Amino acid sequence: MTALCRRIVASRWFDPLILAVIFVNAVALGLETYDSIAREIGDELRLANAVILVVFVVELTIRFAADGFDPRRFFRSGWNVFDFVVIVASFTPGLRQNATLLRLVRLLRIVRAVRLLPDLRVLTVAVGRSIPGVASLAVITLLLVYVYGMVGWVIFDEHDPENFGDVGQAMVTMFILLTLENLPVYIARGQELSDWTLLFYVSYVLVASFLIFNLFIGIVINSMEEARAIELHRAERELLDEDEVNDERAHAVILRERLHHLKTAVEDLEREIEAQGASRVRR
Q: Which of 50, 217, 241, 282 is deepest in the core (most CB within 10 A)?
């Protein structure tokens, strides 16, 4: 059973088939949002969702069997944990009575497509790996926006109270300027006060817009490299696990052959002893 399920999971048609089922699931969920369609074929859509859930349960069972029915090996993969939680949640009584939560759980089934697409899986892992770096960068950006907001309030409090009337509004203005939105307008309004205000905006654009965004790109690229390394390591580990399983299977075959030869030898020895005993009786 384990060998059969392992061949099914490794086959070329298995992942595309599950992707097709996920696509049908997404279409069914989308059709449920149209009241006219839900009234006409609502029962058929609910039946389709039930069949899709059965398919996902069978898929999860096959993957579990492919890991030798070993929970430790199966739950070693974060994707298996995610699939298990999503499928089990579909059977939770409290969720099944709540239409909104049930739809959210069904929506999570679509996210399962991530594990079946290698490149998309790498991107997802990269996003997760980039969160600590992005969080640190967000703190630095917040401090920078606060400092420039305070400086902008000191300079433009009376000249431009609409955008720099207090530190809160000044920080909002600085945050908007991160996207370079209406930068020429702010520069022109600042030059009405003094040409030296150009240094304020230019330094902010150079530090905040260019430096911060380049650091963000660097964090994302580094996370992508780490994600690719993780996926490569995961693939190598799966190959090693498969080799270990194959070695264990080969060892079991050798032991069975030795036991068979030993049994045959014992049977031959018994027949020889019986023949010798019969020969002595005749004498």
A: 241
Residues 193 and 206 in one domain: yes
pLDDT digits (tens, 9 = 90+) for 59-101: 889 988 888 888 888 888 878 888 888 888 878 776 655 556 6
Report CA-CA distances (Å) from 219 to 125, 178, 278.
Answer: 13, 18, 87
Q: Which residues contact 38 (CB under 8 A, 6 or more apart)?
A: 31, 32, 45
CB 182 within 8 A of CB 153: no
pTM above 0.85, yes or no: no
Residues 87, 54 contacting (CB under 8 angstroms):
no
Residue with tokens 């060998």: 3
Same domain for 92 and 125?
no
The phi and psi torsions of 156 (rounded to 5 degrees) equal: -110, 15
Number of folded domains that form the chain: 2
Residues 158 and 99 in one domain: no
Q: What is the DSSP string of 255-275?
A: HHHHHHHHHHHHHHHHHHHHH
Contact between 56 and 85 (Cβ < 8 Å) = no
Residue 253 lies in a domain: no
Residue with tokens 């070693």: 76
CATH number at residue 219: 1.10.287.70
Query: Distance between CA 202 and CA 210 in Å, rounded?
Result: 11
